[in-house]
Amino acid sequence: MEESKNSSDTIIYLCGNPGGGKSLIGNSYIGRNVFESGYSFDGMGITKKIQIFRYKKTGKPIIMDTPGLANVKLEKQAAEQIIKGLRYPGRFKINFVIVLNEGRLQPMDIYTINTVCSSITSDFEYGIIINNFSEITKKIWESSPKMFNFLKSFLDKPPACIFYLLYEDDLEYKPLLQSTELIKFLDNQLSYNITANDIEIINEEEYIQQKESLERELSHLLRELG
Fold it and tell me: What domains appear along the chain, each with residue ranges and CATH number?
């Protein structure tokens, strides 16, 4: 893994919370087990620092895997690493990786997306990858758009695109398994030039306070949605 210092590099930037599957998705795109991934039972996630993969061949994007922001013990460190990644020279394809909880959105994912997006002052678009999306949940979401509309209504900046990565029982044990549709989704995204001057520091104390407030509000609304 090498670091990029070329402002013309395209960077696929994977962001989200612990346990979302950012590292696994990075490995799936690359086609081999480059980023450490797996289950984390302590709420801290596997990834603690930025992980970067750069192809030896020119013209291929850099894959950047970041630590989860909603880390129960390392929120400050995670916030610093996320900002550090965004300050790399290059053109970014920003993607947030989230996982539903029994088919429902998790408040911490919504606030993480809002927090990271608000730290970028230049024009950009981003995508959302919903990982481990079951066939049943897919049918529910397709037949009733209320959860999709609910997601967009709470995002300060709506996503340009959303990808649903269907659940695979043994994906953890198949690091070479590649999703053709996932690769196409990431390759077809537009990239945006983001410089170090375009990035503001994430205030982790404010993040924690506002996250807790939003969790209470969203949990109440999700119960009303049934």
Answer: 10-225 (3.40.50)
